[in-house]
Amino acid sequence: xxxxxxPSDYQLSNCIALYMMQQFCSEAFPEEYHWTPTPFNLHTDxxxxxxxxxxxxxxxxxxxxxxxxxxxxxxxxxxxxxxxxDLEQEDQFLITYPPTxxxxxxxPAVILGQDDVIVLWYLxxxxxxxxxxxxxxxxxxxxxxxxxxxEWLQAMAVPNAMISSVLSIIHPLLYKAEIQxxxxxxxxxxxxxxxxxxxLTVWPTAFTNISLISNRACPLHHNLHLSGNWYDITANxxxxxxxxxxxxxxxxxxxxxxxxxxxxxGHLL
Length: 269
Hints:
By secondary structure, this protein is α/β, with parallel strands linked by helices. The protein contains nine helices and eight strands.
Protein backbone atom coordinates (compact mmCIF):
# COMPACT_ATOMS: atom_id res chain seq x y z
CA UNK A 1 0.00 0.00 0.00
CA UNK A 2 1.55 3.30 -1.06
CA UNK A 3 1.40 6.56 0.85
CA UNK A 4 -0.93 8.04 -1.74
CA UNK A 5 -3.37 5.12 -1.45
CA UNK A 6 -3.76 5.28 2.34
CA PRO A 7 -7.37 5.93 3.38
CA SER A 8 -8.29 9.32 4.79
CA ASP A 9 -11.02 8.22 7.20
CA TYR A 10 -11.11 5.85 10.20
CA GLN A 11 -9.74 3.09 7.95
CA LEU A 12 -6.38 4.84 8.27
CA SER A 13 -6.48 3.95 11.97
CA ASN A 14 -7.21 0.32 11.03
CA CYS A 15 -4.19 0.18 8.70
CA ILE A 16 -1.83 1.62 11.32
CA ALA A 17 -3.42 -0.44 14.13
CA LEU A 18 -2.74 -3.71 12.30
CA TYR A 19 0.90 -2.78 11.75
CA MET A 20 1.34 -1.60 15.36
CA MET A 21 -0.29 -4.73 16.79
CA GLN A 22 1.99 -6.99 14.73
CA GLN A 23 5.03 -4.96 15.71
CA PHE A 24 4.07 -4.99 19.40
CA CYS A 25 3.51 -8.75 19.46
CA SER A 26 6.78 -9.48 17.65
CA GLU A 27 8.74 -7.32 20.14
CA ALA A 28 6.87 -8.18 23.34
CA PHE A 29 6.53 -11.92 22.69
CA PRO A 30 9.37 -12.87 20.28
CA GLU A 31 9.26 -16.55 21.23
CA GLU A 32 5.55 -16.84 20.42
CA TYR A 33 5.22 -14.53 17.40
CA HIS A 34 7.70 -15.09 14.61
CA TRP A 35 6.04 -13.11 11.84
CA THR A 36 7.36 -9.89 10.38
CA PRO A 37 4.85 -7.00 10.47
CA THR A 38 3.14 -6.51 7.13
CA PRO A 39 4.94 -3.57 5.52
CA PHE A 40 3.20 -0.69 3.84
CA ASN A 41 4.74 2.47 2.51
CA LEU A 42 4.68 5.36 4.95
CA HIS A 43 6.70 8.50 5.23
CA THR A 44 9.90 7.87 7.17
CA ASP A 45 8.83 10.21 9.98
CA UNK A 46 5.57 8.29 10.38
CA UNK A 47 7.36 4.93 10.53
CA UNK A 48 9.74 6.30 13.16
CA UNK A 49 6.78 7.66 15.11
CA UNK A 50 4.98 4.31 15.07
CA UNK A 51 8.05 2.41 16.21
CA UNK A 52 8.67 4.94 18.98
CA UNK A 53 5.17 4.35 20.41
CA UNK A 54 5.37 0.57 20.07
CA UNK A 55 8.83 0.37 21.64
CA UNK A 56 7.66 2.40 24.62
CA UNK A 57 4.57 0.20 25.00
CA UNK A 58 6.76 -2.92 25.02
CA UNK A 59 8.98 -1.40 27.72
CA UNK A 60 5.89 -0.51 29.77
CA UNK A 61 4.37 -3.99 29.38
CA UNK A 62 7.54 -5.57 30.73
CA UNK A 63 7.60 -3.23 33.73
CA UNK A 64 4.38 -4.03 35.67
CA UNK A 65 3.74 -2.30 39.00
CA UNK A 66 1.28 -3.90 41.38
CA UNK A 67 -1.32 -1.78 43.17
CA UNK A 68 -4.14 -2.66 45.54
CA UNK A 69 -6.82 -1.11 43.32
CA UNK A 70 -9.87 -3.31 42.83
CA UNK A 71 -11.55 -2.09 39.60
CA UNK A 72 -14.76 -4.02 40.27
CA UNK A 73 -15.25 -2.57 43.76
CA UNK A 74 -14.41 0.90 42.50
CA UNK A 75 -16.94 0.71 39.68
CA UNK A 76 -19.63 -0.48 42.09
CA UNK A 77 -18.96 2.47 44.39
CA UNK A 78 -18.65 5.27 41.82
CA UNK A 79 -21.94 6.78 40.73
CA UNK A 80 -22.55 7.53 37.05
CA UNK A 81 -23.44 11.10 38.06
CA UNK A 82 -20.55 11.59 40.46
CA UNK A 83 -17.85 13.85 39.01
CA UNK A 84 -15.78 13.87 42.25
CA UNK A 85 -14.96 17.55 41.89
CA ASP A 86 -15.66 17.95 45.62
CA LEU A 87 -12.29 17.66 47.41
CA GLU A 88 -13.85 16.59 50.70
CA GLN A 89 -15.74 13.87 48.86
CA GLU A 90 -12.50 12.81 47.17
CA ASP A 91 -10.71 12.64 50.54
CA GLN A 92 -13.47 10.41 51.89
CA PHE A 93 -13.24 8.22 48.82
CA LEU A 94 -9.50 7.74 49.40
CA ILE A 95 -10.14 6.83 53.04
CA THR A 96 -12.59 4.16 51.94
CA TYR A 97 -10.28 2.92 49.18
CA PRO A 98 -6.76 3.77 50.36
CA PRO A 99 -4.13 3.61 47.59
CA THR A 100 -0.70 2.09 47.85
CA UNK A 101 2.15 4.34 48.97
CA UNK A 102 2.63 7.45 46.82
CA UNK A 103 5.28 7.11 44.14
CA UNK A 104 6.47 9.18 41.22
CA UNK A 105 6.83 7.50 37.84
CA UNK A 106 9.17 8.75 35.13
CA UNK A 107 9.75 5.54 33.15
CA PRO A 108 7.44 3.34 31.05
CA ALA A 109 5.21 1.10 33.15
CA VAL A 110 1.81 -0.52 33.46
CA ILE A 111 -0.03 -0.41 36.77
CA LEU A 112 -1.92 -3.53 37.71
CA GLY A 113 -5.04 -3.76 39.82
CA GLN A 114 -6.27 -6.85 41.58
CA ASP A 115 -6.37 -9.98 39.42
CA ASP A 116 -3.54 -8.36 37.40
CA VAL A 117 -5.90 -6.16 35.39
CA ILE A 118 -3.96 -3.33 33.73
CA VAL A 119 -5.56 -0.11 34.96
CA LEU A 120 -3.00 2.32 33.52
CA TRP A 121 -0.38 2.49 30.77
CA TYR A 122 2.29 5.15 31.30
CA LEU A 123 4.29 5.87 28.13
CA UNK A 124 6.76 8.75 28.61
CA UNK A 125 8.60 9.92 25.49
CA UNK A 126 6.39 7.70 23.34
CA UNK A 127 5.90 10.40 20.71
CA UNK A 128 8.81 10.98 18.38
CA UNK A 129 10.05 14.49 17.66
CA UNK A 130 8.29 14.64 14.29
CA UNK A 131 4.99 13.42 15.78
CA UNK A 132 5.15 16.08 18.49
CA UNK A 133 5.78 18.72 15.83
CA UNK A 134 2.62 17.64 14.01
CA UNK A 135 0.60 17.94 17.20
CA UNK A 136 2.00 21.42 17.73
CA UNK A 137 -0.24 22.58 14.88
CA UNK A 138 -3.25 22.24 17.20
CA UNK A 139 -5.65 25.17 17.02
CA UNK A 140 -8.71 26.35 18.88
CA UNK A 141 -11.89 24.30 18.58
CA UNK A 142 -13.78 24.77 15.36
CA UNK A 143 -17.17 23.76 14.06
CA UNK A 144 -16.80 20.61 11.94
CA UNK A 145 -18.91 22.26 9.26
CA UNK A 146 -16.07 24.65 8.36
CA UNK A 147 -13.40 24.01 5.75
CA UNK A 148 -10.72 24.93 8.31
CA UNK A 149 -11.83 22.08 10.60
CA UNK A 150 -11.72 19.55 7.80
CA GLU A 151 -8.28 20.78 6.78
CA TRP A 152 -7.10 20.37 10.38
CA LEU A 153 -8.46 16.80 10.52
CA GLN A 154 -6.61 15.97 7.32
CA ALA A 155 -3.36 17.53 8.57
CA MET A 156 -3.62 15.63 11.86
CA ALA A 157 -4.81 12.34 10.33
CA VAL A 158 -1.67 10.25 10.89
CA PRO A 159 -0.83 11.31 14.48
CA ASN A 160 -4.47 10.97 15.50
CA ALA A 161 -4.63 7.52 13.90
CA MET A 162 -1.44 6.52 15.73
CA ILE A 163 -2.91 7.47 19.11
CA SER A 164 -6.14 5.68 18.22
CA SER A 165 -4.16 2.57 17.31
CA VAL A 166 -2.74 2.40 20.83
CA LEU A 167 -6.23 1.36 21.92
CA SER A 168 -6.15 -1.61 19.53
CA ILE A 169 -3.25 -3.01 21.57
CA ILE A 170 -4.36 -2.22 25.12
CA HIS A 171 -8.07 -3.04 24.61
CA PRO A 172 -8.75 -4.75 21.25
CA LEU A 173 -12.45 -5.37 21.97
CA LEU A 174 -13.07 -1.72 22.84
CA TYR A 175 -11.19 -0.62 19.71
CA LYS A 176 -13.37 -2.94 17.59
CA ALA A 177 -16.53 -1.57 19.24
CA GLU A 178 -15.38 2.01 18.61
CA ILE A 179 -14.80 1.25 14.93
CA GLN A 180 -18.23 -0.37 14.67
CA UNK A 181 -19.72 2.77 16.22
CA UNK A 182 -18.00 4.97 13.65
CA UNK A 183 -19.23 2.71 10.83
CA UNK A 184 -22.81 2.85 12.14
CA UNK A 185 -22.60 6.62 12.52
CA UNK A 186 -21.31 6.89 8.97
CA UNK A 187 -24.21 4.80 7.62
CA UNK A 188 -26.84 6.81 9.49
CA UNK A 189 -25.44 10.25 8.66
CA UNK A 190 -25.21 9.41 4.97
CA UNK A 191 -29.00 9.50 4.97
CA UNK A 192 -29.75 12.68 6.91
CA UNK A 193 -26.71 14.74 7.91
CA UNK A 194 -24.55 16.10 5.12
CA UNK A 195 -22.24 18.03 7.45
CA UNK A 196 -21.45 14.97 9.57
CA UNK A 197 -21.08 12.82 6.47
CA UNK A 198 -18.50 15.25 5.11
CA UNK A 199 -16.58 15.28 8.38
CA LEU A 200 -16.52 11.48 8.62
CA THR A 201 -14.81 11.22 5.23
CA VAL A 202 -11.67 12.61 6.91
CA TRP A 203 -12.21 11.43 10.52
CA PRO A 204 -9.03 9.39 11.11
CA THR A 205 -9.60 7.81 14.52
CA ALA A 206 -11.68 5.15 16.26
CA PHE A 207 -12.62 7.66 18.93
CA THR A 208 -15.73 9.78 18.48
CA ASN A 209 -14.28 12.70 20.41
CA ILE A 210 -10.98 14.60 20.45
CA SER A 211 -10.57 17.14 23.26
CA LEU A 212 -7.87 19.75 23.72
CA ILE A 213 -6.72 21.08 27.11
CA SER A 214 -4.35 24.02 26.80
CA ASN A 215 -2.40 26.00 29.40
CA ARG A 216 -4.38 25.03 32.47
CA ALA A 217 -4.44 22.76 35.49
CA CYS A 218 -7.29 20.26 35.59
CA PRO A 219 -9.15 19.73 38.86
CA LEU A 220 -9.58 16.24 40.22
CA HIS A 221 -12.40 14.67 38.26
CA HIS A 222 -13.46 11.55 36.43
CA ASN A 223 -15.12 10.93 33.10
CA LEU A 224 -18.86 10.39 33.48
CA HIS A 225 -19.16 9.00 29.95
CA LEU A 226 -17.01 5.89 30.42
CA SER A 227 -17.49 2.44 31.84
CA GLY A 228 -14.95 1.22 34.34
CA ASN A 229 -13.04 -0.96 31.86
CA TRP A 230 -12.84 1.69 29.13
CA TYR A 231 -9.74 3.79 28.52
CA ASP A 232 -9.14 7.48 28.09
CA ILE A 233 -5.93 8.21 26.18
CA THR A 234 -4.09 11.50 26.57
CA ALA A 235 -1.09 12.75 24.61
CA ASN A 236 0.99 15.60 25.97
CA UNK A 237 2.74 17.99 23.56
CA UNK A 238 4.35 21.39 23.73
CA UNK A 239 7.58 22.76 25.17
CA UNK A 240 6.70 22.95 28.89
CA UNK A 241 8.43 21.19 31.79
CA UNK A 242 7.98 20.33 35.47
CA UNK A 243 4.39 19.13 35.07
CA UNK A 244 2.80 16.28 37.01
CA UNK A 245 -0.33 14.20 36.43
CA UNK A 246 -1.63 13.15 39.83
CA UNK A 247 -3.90 10.11 40.19
CA UNK A 248 -4.65 9.82 43.93
CA UNK A 249 -6.74 6.66 43.51
CA UNK A 250 -3.57 4.82 42.46
CA UNK A 251 -1.21 6.75 44.69
CA UNK A 252 0.93 7.81 41.73
CA UNK A 253 2.21 11.00 40.21
CA UNK A 254 3.28 10.77 36.58
CA UNK A 255 6.00 13.00 35.16
CA UNK A 256 3.97 14.81 32.51
CA UNK A 257 6.53 15.94 29.96
CA UNK A 258 5.90 16.55 26.24
CA UNK A 259 5.82 13.32 24.27
CA UNK A 260 4.05 11.38 27.01
CA UNK A 261 1.04 9.17 26.30
CA UNK A 262 -1.04 7.74 29.15
CA UNK A 263 -4.07 5.45 28.98
CA UNK A 264 -6.29 4.79 31.97
CA UNK A 265 -9.90 4.45 33.07
CA GLY A 266 -11.02 8.03 33.41
CA HIS A 267 -14.23 6.76 35.05
CA LEU A 268 -12.51 5.07 37.97
CA LEU A 269 -9.23 6.93 38.39
